[in-house]
From TrEMBL:
This is Thioredoxin domain-containing protein. The chain crosses the membrane at residues 12-32. It comes from Candidatus Desantisbacteria bacterium CG_4_10_14_0_8_um_filter_48_22. Keywords: Membrane, Transmembrane, Transmembrane helix.
């Protein structure tokens, strides 16, 4: 009898705790709005929110709410409704002191207004259009994830090495070692971004096509890019650190860069 009572009491405590947890969850779920529904008060907040929620952001900077502003605003809003991608829109007045830091960072104060900037979820700028914009142009800003991963470090002034390899490609270790040794050089420390990408992934097909990589070779490749987005070379097979330094030297001297790049 006593044993049964203890079980009932213990179960009662467990049930009470569970009920409290459920009530607390429901309370906070109700009182705290979903992050996606939070309205940012500044462009900086909008950029942060877009990053945290994985959305593209269209930043529309303006001085006056004139005809150009209203037309661009309408086009962007229509595109947002029609797009299958998650998109945020934020309108920023250049007269607002709170917007000055972001406006200065992107050179908006010297640009014709209104102007819309497209930012990928990782913060890479994928497009900018002053005075007018079409839905087709906005659609072109929604680029593949690999492109945004490449653009971000390039826009930060870094060299980008894209390592294209998977379990089916040969010379994976050689390519990875060459890239690692290159980026570890003291004079390049902190200025090289290495990005791994699968050449067999359908999401990367557009990039593979752009660099004209022969997919039938089944060899790992290193794509060498320099700011603002120039291909300094595409190197397949047994790539070495010296190969990459050769591409860098060619670009630095204006000598035409490496294979297929800097033309």
């Amino acid at each position: 009898m006593n044993k049964s009572l203890r079980i009932i009491k213990n179960n009662g405590i467990a049930i009470s705790v569970a009920v409290l947890l459920v009530i607390s969850f429901l309370f906070f779920s109700y009182t705290l709005p979903a992050q996606e529904n939070i309205a940012p008060k500044t462009a900086a907040e909008a950029i942060s929110l877009a990053r945290n929620t994985g959305r593209y952001l269209f930043l529309l900077f303006y001085k006056d709410k004139d005809g150009s502003f209203n037309t661009m605003k309408g086009t962007i809003e229509e595109f947002e409704k029609e797009s299958s991608k998650k998109i945020m829109i934020y309108r920023a007045s250049t007269a607002n002191e709170q917007e000055k830091d972001v406006a200065t960072k992107y050179g908006i104060l010297k640009a014709p207004l209104p102007i819309v900037l497209s930012l990928a979820p990782n913060g890479a700028v994928t497009g900018g259009f002053p005075k007018e914009v079409s839905k087709q142009q906005l659609a072109g800003c929604l680029v593949p994830e690999l492109t945004t991963r490449i653009l971000k470090p390039l826009q930060e002034g870094k060299i980008v090495l894209v390592l294209l390899q998977n379990k089916n490609t040969k010379y994976n270790m050689e390519s990875a070692k060459a890239a690692g040794d290159f980026s570890d050089e003291p004079q390049l420390k902190g200025y090289v971004e290495i990005i791994m990408a699968d050449p067999g992934d359908a999401k990367n097909k557009e990039f593979i096509s752009q660099i004209k990589l022969d997919e039938n070779k089944n060899e790992a490749a290193v794509v060498f890019l320099v700011p603002p987005g120039t291909i300094a070379g595409v190197f397949s097979g047994k790539v070495t650190k010296e190969t990459l330094f050769g591409a860098l030297a060619a670009c630095s001297s204006g000598g035409g860069c490496g294979s297929g790049g800097c033309k």
